Amino acid sequence: LKFDNNAAVHNARLTKEFFQENNITLLDHPACSLDLNPIENIWGWMAREVYKNGHQFQTVDALCEAIFNTWSNVPTSLLETLASSMPKQFFEVINKNGGATHY
């Protein structure tokens, strides 16, 4: 079971074939709908950490190393905060009938 927000990456032929071949059922999800996936918050945190203080990288290898180091050091407290916020987010989405929330 997977949510599909109609993003281009989810509509690629190979992606659709992969889902079909692996018996992954997609749920219809309107474009630009709420993203309740906490990984998006982690990506944002990681980007801020990797490029902290305007840091720029001279090589792809240096950037990859910074990304891997950052991924290895995601604070447990961030993960716990994101996980504990999910029930409140779901509740608010349900109460707003899928409309805009403050998240």
Automatic annotation (TrEMBL):
Superkingdom, taxonomy of origin: Eukaryota
Domain Tc1-like transposase DDE: 6-63
One Gene Ontology term of the molecular function aspect: nucleic acid binding
Designated name of the protein: Tc1-like transposase DDE domain-containing protein
Record-linked InterPro entries: RNaseH_sf (IPR036397), Tc1-like_DDE_dom (IPR038717)
A Pfam entry, by short name: DDE_3
